[in-house]
């Protein structure tokens, strides 16, 4: 029986590449999405990966969604908390709504995704958790006080979970992608994006598949001693 992997925000961008790479590596994958039905339908048609719709910011929706996935596919052994949004604005213009939306999806959403699967992982003495953080959680970013706070928070989450899960053979690790060629980065004004690319020594944006490769590595059954770590994948833009 193949292991079941849950990828939040798994039908587009980095998440879609992760879902696909996990499927190609032999996992049974459930990809969640929040709103874009057309993209999800297209994704399922082209990959055969099942998609499930819920809002990760809502604990009850996450819990019942996860119950549905487990009823249909089996116990979830791998969780990739990838779903994330931006609401960029300089701090003096940032509204409480922009703050709360980003905290709800990117940070509380990680809690809501992992918490319902945690007891099962402890019982079965196996679990692999990967949280997709960001270069901007490591270095901060103009106009991203909200987003950077959540992505720095992800690192605290995995470092704490790593200690709690270690004796149950559960690992929790983070990946900090730099600027990757996805809709999220393409939404940045072109002039700003060009200036960002000029700061990347590799001279280009990253590809979603380059992040997916790191996920496949971290969730392997044999990766049990890699726990609480942060992998940076940013083309040498920011070295920690
Ligand atoms: N550093 C310093 N100053 C900056 C700056 C920067 N990085 N970016 C903009 N500014 C300055 C501008 O030059 C401008 O200054 P002046 O008023 O003196 O001209 C001021 O800040 C911005 O003022 P605006 O009124 O034009 O700002 P705005 O309210 O229209 O907001 C913005 C524009 C939201 C900041 C827009 O420039 C933007 O989206 N920037 C990109 C932010 C970014 O990098 N987001 C990352 C998204 S990708 C992602 O998040 C994925 C990941 O994990 C990597």
TrEMBL record:
Signal peptide: none annotated. InterPro entries: Acetoacetyl-CoA_reductase, KR_dom, NAD(P)-bd_dom_sf, Sc_DH/Rdtase_CS, SDR, SDR_fam. GO terms for biological process: monocarboxylic acid metabolic process; poly-hydroxybutyrate biosynthetic process. GO terms for molecular function: acetoacetyl-CoA reductase activity. GO terms for cellular component: cytoplasm. Pfam families: adh_short_C2 (PF13561). SUPFAM superfamilies: NAD(P)-binding Rossmann-fold domains. Residues 3-183 form the Ketoreductase domain. The keyword Oxidoreductase applies. SMART domains: PKS_KR (SM00822). Keywords: Oxidoreductase. Belongs to the short-chain dehydrogenases/reductases (SDR) family. This is Ketoreductase domain-containing protein. It comes from marine sediment metagenome.
